Every structure is written in C-alpha cells, then in structure tokens.
C-alpha cells in the first residue's frame, strides 16, 4: 500500500492531470486505487461523476484537513495506491498530507521558467526533515512538456534539479489534447475513441510509461525504508 501526494503551491501546474493519468493507468494495470480529492475545485470528483464506473478506481470528494486522516484510514483498507490531489496553494493541509505520504510527486511545467510553486514544496520537505527528522521521498515530474523539445527541456531542468539533489522522473507528461479531453469526455484514455482524438496512441503510451516510472520509484523508496528499518 502506497500513499502518494501531488503537490505544487502554484495553481495550474498539472497536478490533477497527473493524478488522473496515474490513477486510471494503475487501475487499468489491475491495482486498486483511491483518489482523495482535497482540492475545493473538485476536478477529479467532477470527472468521476461524469465517467462510467472505472474498475478498481474510487474517488472520494470533499476531503479536508480535518477529515483526511479518517478518509485515508478507510482508503488504506481497500487500496493498493492512495493518491492525494491538493489545491494549488499554500495550506496547512499540504504539510499534513506530506506527513501522511510514502512519496510526494511535484509536478512542474517543463517549459515554464516559474517553478516557484515546486520550490515551495521542496523547501517544506527540507524543513520537515531538518526540524522533525521526517524524510519523505519525493520526485519532480515534468508536465506539459512540448513533444518537440522534450529532450532539451528535460536535460536543462534535470541538470538544475540534480545540482540540488532532487530526483526527477525519467518520463515527463507531454502536452497532449487527449489529456485535456479526458476531463471533458469522462472515462479514460482506454475508453476514448482512437479515431476521434488526435495522437491518442501516443498519449496512452506516455501515460503508461509515466505510471511505470512512478511505480518503480515508489517500490524503490519503500524497499530502502524496509532495509533501514530492518538494520
Ligand atoms: N499534459 C497536459 N497536456 C495538455 N493539457 C494539460 C496537461 N496538463 C495539464 N493540462 C491542462 O492545464 C490546465 C491545468 O492543469 P491541472 O488542472 O492538471 O493543474 P492543477 O495543478 O491541478 O491546477 P490547480 O492548482 O488549479 O488544481 C488544465 O486545463 C489541464 O487540462
Ligand atoms: Mg488541480
């Protein structure tokens, strides 16, 4: 069982899109997934209401700072993965969700100069480590990357983050209309019509590789934590 929080205090970084893609891919692979929707705009919950039931996937709306412990306790019993979608703002809920997580994913737009919202989250993670000795594994996921300049943008940002010892997922989320359309149409990339959505096959491949990358990271950090505890 893994709890993964998506955090960036700047709005529109691509958190909810990253949550939706991971949740639907994991469910497609056969894992039981619960999304705790703690964003007052409830995009995930709206998408869930719009969609036909997706096997093995549940979205819990109206998750707040006071209810998150209870919701998480419930979700743990019936999920392999719990994903937490947060609002794009600084809030006490952010620190709380981080404290409850096995891994934090920080979506940052690969093309944008302004990664400040991501930096806030990284500062908070450092603060929790320094003050409380709470080490929460975390990775940056580059989002909305232009497919034409993927390698250059990725290398530049990865280089910058590597200087600060920040892990970056190998697979970025590319800017694709399918990733927008899925919110409007409901359903998943796997139920969308190949003939009607442009580059849907590429979008599906991107989502699958991204989910596999996250699973590898989370498994690796959990293995490391187990070895530490056993030592
Ligand atoms: N990879 C992508 N390809 C195309 N559009 C994207 C992609 N990622 C995000 N978007 C679009 O960008 C906008 C913001 O994305 P999203 O809602 O995922 O960000 P967010 O970080 O959850 O925002 P908020 O802080 O408001 O919750 C949305 O309109 C979404 O459809
Ligand atoms: Mg959102």
Automatic annotation (TrEMBL):
<dbReference type="InterPro" id="IPR027417">
    <property type="entry name" value="P-loop_NTPase"/>
</dbReference>
<dbReference type="Pfam" id="PF07015">
    <property type="entry name" value="VirC1"/>
</dbReference>
<protein>
    <submittedName>
        <fullName>Chromosome partitioning protein</fullName>
    </submittedName>
</protein>
<dbReference type="InterPro" id="IPR050678">
    <property type="entry name" value="DNA_Partitioning_ATPase"/>
</dbReference>
<dbReference type="InterPro" id="IPR009744">
    <property type="entry name" value="VirC1"/>
</dbReference>
């Amino acid at each position: 069982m893994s709890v993964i929080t998506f955090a960036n205090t700047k709005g529109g970084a691509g958190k909810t899109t990253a949550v939706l893609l991971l949740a639907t891919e994991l469910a497609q692979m056969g894992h039981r997934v619960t999304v705790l929707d703690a964003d007052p705009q409830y995009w995930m919950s709206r998408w869930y209401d719009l969609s036909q039931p997706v096997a093995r996937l549940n979205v819990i709306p109206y998750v707040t700072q006071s209810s998150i412990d209870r919701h998480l306790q419930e979700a743990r019993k019936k999920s392999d993965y719990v994903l937490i979608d947060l609002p794009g703002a600084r809030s006490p809920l952010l620190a709380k969700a981080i404290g409850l997580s096995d891994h934090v994913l920080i979506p940052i737009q690969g093309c944008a100069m302004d990664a400040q919202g991501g930096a806030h989250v990284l500062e908070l993670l450092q603060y929790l480590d320094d003050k409380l000795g709470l080490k929460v594994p975390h990775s940056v996921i580059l989002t909305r990357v232009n497919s034409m300049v993927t390698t250059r943008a990725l290398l530049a940002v990865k280089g910058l983050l590597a200087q600060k010892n920040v892990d970056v997922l190998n697979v970025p989320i590319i800017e694709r209309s399918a990733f927008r359309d899925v919110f409007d149409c409901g359903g998943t990339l796997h139920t969308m019509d190949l003939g009607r959505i442009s580059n849907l096959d590429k979008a599906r491949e991107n989502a699958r590789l991204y989910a596999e990358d996250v699973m590898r990271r989370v498994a690796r950090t959990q293995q490391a934590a187990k070895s530490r505890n056993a030592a």
